[in-house]
Amino acid sequence: MKFLQSIRWRLQLWHGLLLGLVLAGFGFTGWRLEWANRLRAVDQALDERISVVAGVLPHGPSGGEQPREGRRNPDRPPPRQDIQEDSPPQDGPPQDQPEMGERPAERKIVLSAHDSGFFDGTSGGAYYYTVWLPGERLLSRSDWAPAAVPLPGREAGPRGSRVRGTVRESYHFTPQGFCVLVGRDISEELAGMRRLGLLFAGAGGAVFLLGLAGGWWISMRALRPIGEISATASKIAHGDLAQRIPTAGAGSELRELAGVLNETFTRLQAAFARQAQFTADAAHELRTPVSVVLTETQTVLARERSAAEYRASLEACQRSAQRMRRLTENLLALARLDSGEAAASRDSCDLAEIVGGVVDMLRPLAAERQLSFDLGLQAVSCKGSAEQLGRAVTNLVTNAIHYNRSGGSVRVTLEARPGSAVLSVADTGQGIAPEDIPHVFERFYRADRARSNPSGRTGLGLAITKAIVEAHGGTIGVVSEPGAGSTFTVCLPLDPQGQDTGAAAPTGS
Amino acid sequence: MKILIVEDEPDLLAGLARGLREEEYAVDTAADGEEGLYKASNSDYDAIVLDVLLPRLDGWMVLERLREKKKTPVLMLTARDAARDRVRGLDAGADDYMAKPFDFGELLARLRALIRRSAGLTRNRILLGAVAIDTASRQVTRGGEPVPLTAREYALVEFLALHRGEVVTRSDLYEHLFDENDSTLSNLLDVHVSNIRKKLGADFIVTRRGFGYCIE
Q1: Are residues A61 and A185 in the same domain?
Q2: Contacts of residue A298 in chain B, CB cutoff 8 Å?
Q3: Scanning A16, A208, A241, B42, which has the fewest C-beta atoms within 10 Å of its C-beta?
């Protein structure tokens, strides 16, 4: 029953069930009402006739007036012999008083011409009556009366009605003890009700089918956006990241969902694009050194060379290999930072010591370019990995050396501010063009391509520095004045323990 | 044949220049876009090897500005090899496109093809009566017999053969046969022509006094 898992099928099922129940309820109630109405009309006619018949009966077993408008059959006076009470007969002594227990002969109740018209089949339907004497003796039956009409029970009260087969009968026990029953064949009404029932069933069925179709259409319309969402999502899953769910025309809830999904897709696409760009950039960066090695080896091996030529060629190959090594190291470092491995080590480390160590290590490089260091280091410690922080500082100071003018200076300061350690590295170089500033921390972005490759920069240094700083909960920024130099500022959260502020250790160079 | 290499990676530039010179090309080099454009605009090269990512002026810009003036065949050399980069390069007027890292032999073959096509030839073999020149193996034969030529002599014969029927001026010849590192003596050309005539026949190269040389 897989389709039961489908929302549309389940909606349809419930919809159909409810619609069916409602239609059946309405139809049945309507049919019952109509049946009750018709019965009431029949009963009314029957009751009228009961009063007509009862009117001609003696007013009581104990004697009464002459039947109204009635003429007693001279041959058949009203039976008095089976009336148990010793009431005096009204029309003289009965002439044909039978023995006790003897079945009394049926008699006709004589109705007036007008009243008899009620029972002659001319007033709509074949009415009949049957009258019983008290004691269940049959007194009289009309012409059309069925042969054996059972005497109704009195349990339900003196008045009542019943349906017997295709006849409707109303009866009345008169106070005198007579039981007057008037009946009528209602097969026409029954047939009418059957027709009505069929009509109701047919109409109900039609409405049901219409309702189902409408429900199907509505659920289809309501669920179509879901279909679109899933189609789009599956296209995206198959690699077409540019796909978006159309939001026009969907209901507001689904539009919201589609909006959220689209936003997610956009972020995913951007992440994939960044990843793809990164991979392409990494491959790109590797292409040039590989080209150098290939060209060198292919051209140099084409003929015999002098030792000096071989040496020069090997040196070129070595430079390229070194560049590839740096690149792979940096790529690995970035991959580790991206995966969050950096957050693992959280020792307290002395930033001043780290920065001092980096500066000492880079002094020879600075000296090569006739650069001087200008240090202002306060003792500050923060939590993190000394190795990674050292790498970040190395990148910043190396940049400051590389992008400096000959004879310039590199100013490195470290100070404790409330809550954070602030490291700033300022150079006196060309500065960074304003349009490049937003991109300097991007991977493989190099503001000045003219000086990039020969110095062996990979274009990843600042990206790695930023990743390290951010992994330590810090921030990095740069201000630059073209022609005057750039200042990179790193803020790292202070180590809450072991702050010995004020112990400034300024050194100069 | 003179070729300009515009490449900002010094090791690659040096390796390419050495390799091409050893293939008897005259090679000029430029380390950035501006220098490359200047040299390409002011000299007639037989082909230019142009890197895309260059300092100061990138390869696209160099190509765009060069195409305003010259039809020199350009082989783009780039680290990007996505199809859209190749399409962009070819649409921008590049004649060929190679992605780094490349095979040096393939680079040579593509350069030969570029030069050949710009001369209107479809094959590497040029027939001049009894003399046949194979530009791939750099061999000249006369009546089926190989004729030993020096590299300069071969270059002179090949250049004149590629411009068959045209009068090539002396300055054109200097331009295409000697690179910026050669010290060119004014009579060097006459020495080469005289040597070629000894090897391939006196009327192989015709001198047009006051104009230049021609292979008819």
Answers
A1: yes
A2: 19, 103-105
A3: B42
In tens, the pLDDT along A65-118 reads: 344 444 444 444 444 434 344 444 444 444 444 444 444 445 556 677 677 767
**SS3 assignment, position A85:** coil
Residues B61 and B160 grouped into a single domain: no
Q: Using CA atoms, how far apart are residues B130 and B162, in angstroms rounded to an integer?
A: 16
Q: What sections of A98-186 are H helices per DSSP?
A: 113-116
Q: Which of chain A's residues have a Cβ under 8 Å away from the Cβ of B10? A: 453-454
- Are residues B72 and B30 part of one domain? yes
Which helix (H) or strand (E) segment holds residue A54: the answer is helix A7-55
Of A400, A422, A403, which Cα lies nearest the Cα of A411?
Answer: A400
The closest alpha carbon to B102, from B73, B78, B86, belongs to B78
User: Which pair of tokens denotes residue A115?
Assistant: 């009243």
Find the closest chain A residue to B102 by CA distance: A291
Among B10, B18, B19, the residue with its CB nearest the CB of A454 is B10
Say if strands B2-6 and B47-51 run parallel, antiparallel, or are unpaired: parallel
Count residue pairs from A and B with Cβ separation < 8 A.
Answer: 72
The first and second tokens of residue A165, run together, are 């087969």
Residues B98 and B27 in one domain: yes
Q: Is B21 on the interface with A (CB under 8 A)?
A: no
Give the alpha-carbon dihedral of A167, A172, A177, A180, to 10 degrees: -40
Q: Quote the domain boundaries for residue A453.
A: 344-493
Residues 38-77 of A with CB under 8 A from B: none
Residues 6+ apart with CB under 8 A from A154: A173
How close A281 comes to chain B (CA, Å)?
9
Q: Decide if the complex's ipTM is over 0.90.
A: no
Amino acid at position A498, single letter: G
| Segment A239-296, tens digit of pLDDT | 787 888 777 766 677 778 888 888 888 888 888 887 877 787 788 778 888 998 999 9
B-chain CB neighbours of A288 within 8 Å are 9, 12, 79, 100
Q: How many domains does chain B divide into?
A: 2
For residues B42 and B177, what is the distance between their CA atoms, to the nearest angstrom? 16
Q: Do B9 and A453 touch (CB under 8 A)?
A: yes
Residue A216 tokens read as 């199907």
Please give the backbone phi and psi of residue A192, each rounded to the nearest 5 degrees, phi first: -60, -40
Q: Which domain holds residue B192?
A: 125-214
Contact: A449, B54; criterion CB under 8 Å: yes
